Amino acid sequence: MNDSNSVIQHLFEQNHTWLRSRLRARTGCQQHAEDLAAETFLRVLSMPAPERIREPRALLTTIAYRLLYESWRRRDLEKAYLRLLAGTAEEVQPSPEEQLELIDRLLHLDRLLNGLPGQAKAVFVCSFVEGLTYSQISQRLGLSVTSIHRLMASALHNCWEALADER
């Protein structure tokens, strides 16, 4: 076994039960806690130099809480999407597979826009999702068209950087 594997094995043996119980207390669900703990250790496995980890519990907590936050965001997004879907006619509703695909796309878009101020997100959504013109967005949000251009440029730049990071 190489050094990286033994470091990760030791990290797992020393912290898995602790992390799982911490997540169990946070989520109230043993299964969800186990899933999050497993995903946390998978993320650690993909790290380039696990032997450099100085504060393992701090790192594990940070990774696990980010995953927990992502799961909450996904749940909230799914609920909002399903509420919206409930108001549409049954014959135009997407199949369950299409629904999952749409939710995944919405989450991807959410990650692309992560970190933007609320107004920049609103401008992006109004333009690309609702198809509004900059003038219409300006009226809806009470901002100047110049501000709309600036906010859209910021949103597009953020998306460009996020997509470049994914490659």
Automatic annotation (TrEMBL):
User: Does the keyword Transcription feature in the UniProt annotation?
Assistant: yes
Molecular function via GO: DNA binding; sigma factor activity
Where does the source fall among the domains of life?
Bacteria
Q: Which InterPro entries match?
A: RNA_pol_sigma-70-like (IPR039425), RNA_pol_sigma-70_dom (IPR014284), RNA_pol_sigma70_r2 (IPR007627), RNA_pol_sigma70_r4_t2 (IPR013249), RNA_pol_sigma_r2 (IPR013325), RNA_pol_sigma_r3/r4-like (IPR013324), WH-like_DNA-bd_sf (IPR036388)
Q: Which residues does the UniProt record annotate as the domain RNA polymerase sigma-70 region?
A: 11-76
Query: Which Pfam families does this one have?
Result: Sigma70_r2, Sigma70_r4_2
User: Is Calcium included in the keywords of this UniProt record?
Assistant: no
Domain RNA polymerase sigma factor 70 region 4 type residues, every copy: 109-156
List keywords of the entry alphabetically: Sigma factor, Transcription, Transcription regulation
Q: What Gene Ontology biological process does one annotation of this record name?
A: DNA-templated transcription initiation
The entry's family comment says:
Belongs to the sigma-70 factor family. ECF subfamily.
Cross-referenced PANTHER family: RNA POLYMERASE ECF-TYPE SIGMA FACTO (PTHR43133), RNA POLYMERASE SIGMA FACTOR FECI-RELATED (PTHR43133:SF63)
* Protein name, entry field: RNA polymerase subunit sigma
